[in-house]
Amino acid sequence: RGRPAAMEAREPLRDVRGALRAVLARLREGEPGEGREPFELPRFWDALGQTFQVTSQEATKLSLAFSRPPLPSAEDCRKLSEDVQNAILAVATVYYWLPKGQGTTLRKMVRDATTEVVEGMIQLTDTILNAPEESLSQEQLISTGGVWEACEQVSNLPRDNQAAVVSALAACLGVVKDAVEEMEHALVEGQDPYGDIMEDEELGFRGNRDTYWSEADRQLLSSCMGLMKASKACLKKVLAAVKAHGKADSPEQIAQLDDLADIANEISPSVDELALSMYPPVNPLAVRLNAAKLASVLKKVLEIAKASHVCPPSEEGWVQFLAGAVDHNMNKVKNFTQGQL
């Protein structure tokens, strides 16, 4: 007999879940307007921090209300639901204040953090709506913790576009470092990149051309390694330059940083594509195409960096040097694959 009443009490929570899903859809698809004028970053961060904190508190209240009998009355549930909805609407509203002019890299990071909070709250309402009986489920504990964690993220967000681009470049560098190490490791493993996974018990060796590198392959691959190492060096240098000289004071500086982040984002997928084509059986033409793609991304990174405020004359030496290294390795790749064309 108590069951329908319990369902009844949770009804407002269903409506809230629907409303939150609508907010989430808007956040995911939408580029909102240009924000409120005049915009002040410090005020924005204060407001965002506050809305995240309130949301965290509302999650706690909601979760506690449904953690033990008696379940909240329909009236209490309506009040709780309203508070949750208002908290999430406030989070979204403050995010929408942030104009694109503050930097698309920064904006994306703030949007991701905001989206996570909304997703966390949807997850929590789901858990409560699906909870069978009047007790605190493991899922509900986990979902509540998920909202708390998402809300705490606000304190780790970069505070302006320079910091956002530093963080984006550092992430790219980490991925490229791993890819370079993995490839170096495979090449050093000796004649047989698949040795660890394909031992032929009976023969004790494999004479299959498809699973090892010939001498010619290795020559070609050493130039590819050169390009991969140049990618790592490019990201390292650009990251250092953005840390040292990057500013987010003018629209022009902010836009230059975004351009750098956007092109740097293409390095890691290009490195991965090249690395994949380096495994046997090597198709020299595929290797050449992937090497050319990576080389052109790197040249573009260097060009954009050089033309921007992060490269005063003191930084031009390494730009020149790395552009030379990219050309040198790409020319070697071309020479090794000439006969294949």
UniProtKB/TrEMBL annotation:
Q: Signal sequence span per UniProt? A: none
List UniProt keywords, sorted A-Z. Answer: Cell cycle, Cytoplasm, Nucleus
Q: Where is the Cyclin-D1-binding protein 1-like C-terminal domain?
A: 199-303
**Mind telling me what this protein is named?**
CCDB1 protein
A cellular-component GO term for this protein: cytoplasm
- By its UniProt entry, which PANTHER family does this protein fall under? CYCLIN D1-BINDING PROTEIN 1 (PTHR15492), CYCLIN-D1-BINDING PROTEIN 1 (PTHR15492:SF1)
**Which top-rank group of organisms is this from?**
Eukaryota
Is Nucleus one of the keywords?
yes
Compartments, record wording: Cytoplasm; Nucleus
Q: Which family does it belong to?
A: Belongs to the CCNDBP1 family.
